[in-house]
Amino acid sequence: LLETESKIKAQSPSIKTRIIVKDLGDNPTPDSIDLIEKQTKDIDISILINNAGVMYNEYFINLDPKDIEGMINVNCVAPTLLLNVYLKRLVERSKQKGLWSAVINIDSIAGSGPAPFTAAYSGTKGFLWFLSLAVSHEVRKHVDVMSVSPGPVNTAMSGFLKNESKFDPST
Questions:
Q1: Exposed, middle or buried by CB within 10 Å (0-12, 13-18, 19+), for 152?
Q2: Distance CA 67, CA 71 (A)
Q3: Which end of the chain is more exposed for a tag (fewer CB within 10 A), N or C?
């Protein structure tokens, strides 16, 4: 994070940055999101990017309920609460200063339909996609709200895609 912050400041010295560390899977609440918002009150935020995500590569029936809860917290609850809090600021920024703002929610191509072995994940990302579409319509005169739906990306989170043989279809 510090390296990214340094790069931003080197390219655009007038941009204010703030690193806030928060485990979004650890029971995000309106109060915990308000604390994040208060820590950024002095920054003119023009873009909110919701880019956190958790995925478990397993048959839904084999998932631990705590893992499902954490995934819903990270993929649905936290971005929804962040969107609610920051969208108010972004709309006010547009109305008061005439400056356009944007929200970018990173969902997943998995959210566009059923995805075996990632059923809960695809459900959470579908939620974020539909939330983005609806909110985009509501604030279209002031803020661009968009959804980006990448396909499989070679990360530790999606590494299973290289070897689907771990799944036994007869189970």
A1: middle
A2: 6
A3: C
Q: What is the pLDDT of residues 20-29, one digit of tens each?
A: 888 888 889 9
125 tagged catalytic: yes
Binning pLDDT at 50, 70 and 90, where does residue 108 land?
A: very high
And the tokens for 148?
A: 């980006």
pTM: 0.85
Q: Which DSSP category does 47 fall into?
A: E
88 a catalytic residue: no
Pick the catalytic residue from 125, 141, 162, 166.
125
Helices (H), the chain: 2-11, 30-38, 65-72, 78-97, 119-138
> Which of 22, 41, 95, 121 does the annotation list as catalytic?
121
